[in-house]
Specification:
By secondary structure, the chain is α/β, with parallel strands linked by helices. The chain is built from 12 helices and 17 strands. It folds into 2 domains: about 325 residues, Vaccinia Virus protein VP39 (Rossmann fold); about 60 residues, no CATH class. The structure holds S-adenosylmethionine (SAM).
Length: about 425
């Protein structure tokens, strides 16, 4: 297993105080005259995700069959659909594309990951690292990202995002910032995913409420029971609801569906928005609404028919994502009844092993490469190795990576039954690969 430290985009800033989540959005306007008449040619493959339109639509609108467009043509595109942003505000798109064109002419950086080892754990910022993967080298991505405004993790890494915000992922001023940053990650990831690959993106919705941000559900529960003596100001980070463009205090902000829409604008196929029905969830004391007991898993693909093995649902043991015979029928539907994680190991935001295992079983073959860019305690790696797949995991926290390394290292000797046991060959940590990062 390779475990190494890699480059971070904004340096290791874990000692920097976490910002409060407090909408204070400056006005942003498009300067139409700045690049007017410029002869700079911009690559369509970069323009399409930035304006959130398909290449075929762009060609139709502009009446062109080429692979490059001018800044004036980008303004025409922005005027077609003034609100459809992906990872940038509309007012930032032209400057961003012009800067990218300049960088393109200066650099010829070579993508290098993954480097061949069956398991690689990489310490660093996912956003900075996703561009270092060889095109088409990842067969499947399964991840559970930080959710918006929900948790303080062990290491907070400040990321410099393309829209100009500098904050740890999940600590954006607004849900819209979180959507832009999620779209930036999905855009960076897309070239690395194999043509028949799948991306499984686990995310939960958030409420726009005034609250303290805590480390895990147990802490939140203690607070509900009146056992947290800390005052408002004593918390590491707080979320303020006042100041949002339209979302009111106490309103659900509908993040998962909006991520799905942006993924579609980036060129992914939204195959399914899966509901993960959880048997146990943190109690919610609100008196004016029902309690939540679900999360979402977005299944995204690059082509209409990604690799998909429906039979895995019938063949795998329930602990590895096979049918939950008590609550699920033989039909593999978009409502998944999977146990909530026991939380053993202390990560605080773990998903159960059965969730990544089901995604991996459905969309990969033995020997394929699975990536989790927010690996946490390592359950995606445990699932991947238990099913005989290769695994690459990324996290900013050395503590979580060590936990992941231990859990994945146990796979070779754990009792997952006889299913594909002979394919599970764990490579020891000292067998480093030739990864150039
Ligand atoms: C929801 S947790 C993942 C939990 C994981 N699925 C599990 O079962 O344990 C999100 C993880 O993302 C990591 N993280 C946060 N910001 C990151 C970044 N910019 N790059 C990489 N990892 C990051 C956190 O340290 C945390 O472990």
């Amino acid at each position: 297993m390779t475990h190494r430290k890699t480059a971070n985009s904004a340096g290791d800033t874990s000692s920097r105080p976490l910002p409060d989540i407090k909408p204070q959005t400056p006005i942003a306007t498009l300067d139409r005259s700045k690049h007017r008449g410029s002869a700079q040619l911009l690559r369509l493959e970069q323009v399409a995700p930035a304006v959130g339109m398909s290449v075929s639509f762009i060609r139709k609108v502009l009446g062109t069959s080429g692979n490059q467009v001018t800044p004036d043509q980008v303004i025409t595109l922005l005027d077609q659909d003034a609100f459809g942003e992906t990872y940038l505000r509309r007012s930032q798109v032209l400057d961003h594309l012009m800067a990218a064109a300049e960088r393109d002419s200066e650099t010829g950086g070579e993508a290098a990951l993954p480097a061949g080892d069956p398991v690689q754990l990489l310490l660093g910022d996912a956003q900075a690292m996703l561009g270092t993967f060889r095109p088409g080298s990842i067969d499947c991505v399964v991840t559970s990202t930080p959710y918006w405004g929900m948790r303080v993790y062990k290491s907070s890494h400040f990321v410099e995002w393309a829209d100009g915000e500098v904050c740890p992922y999940g600590h954006e001023q607004t849900p819209e910032g979180f959507l832009r940053h999620t779209a930036q990650l999905l855009a960076a990831l897309k070239p690395a995913v194999a043509a028949d690959g799948s991306v499984w993106w686990n995310v939960m919705d958030s409420y726009n409420t005034r609250t303290q941000i805590r480390g895990n559900a147990a802490e939140a529960l203690r607070a509900m029971q009146g056992l947290d003596q800390r005052a408002w100001a004593d918390h590491e980070s707080r979320r303020y609801s006042a100041g949002h463009v339209y979302a009111k205090d106490g309103e659900q902000v509908l993040i998962p569906g909006r991520i799905a829409e942006r993924a579609s604008r980036l060129g992914y196929y939204v195959k399914s928005v899966i509901t993960w029905a959880k048997p146990y969830t943190t109690p919610e004391p609100q008196k004016s609404r029902v309690s939540r007991s679900l999360e979402y898993v977005l299944h995204l693909s690059k082509q209409r028919t990604p690799k998909f093995n429906r039979e895995a649902y019938r063949q795998l043991p329930p602990s590895l994502g096979g049918r939950n015979t008590l609550l699920e029928t033989d039909k593999l539907s978009d409502v998944w009844h999977l146990a909530t994680s026991s939380g053993i190991g202390g990560h605080g935001a773990q998903f159960p092993l059965s969730l990544p295992a089901r995604c991996i079983g459905l969309s990969t073959n033995v020997g394929d490469v699975v990536l989790d860019p927010f690996v946490g305690s390592g359950n995606t790696g445990v699932a991947a190795r238990s099913l005989g797949r290769k695994f690459v995991g990324i996290d900013v926290s050395p503590e979580y990576l060590t936990q992941a390394e231990e859990s994945i290292g146990m796979v070779g000797e754990s009792a997952f039954g006889s299913f594909e046991r002979e394919q599970v060959k764990l490579v020891q940590a000292e067998q480093h690969g030739t990864n150039v990062l």
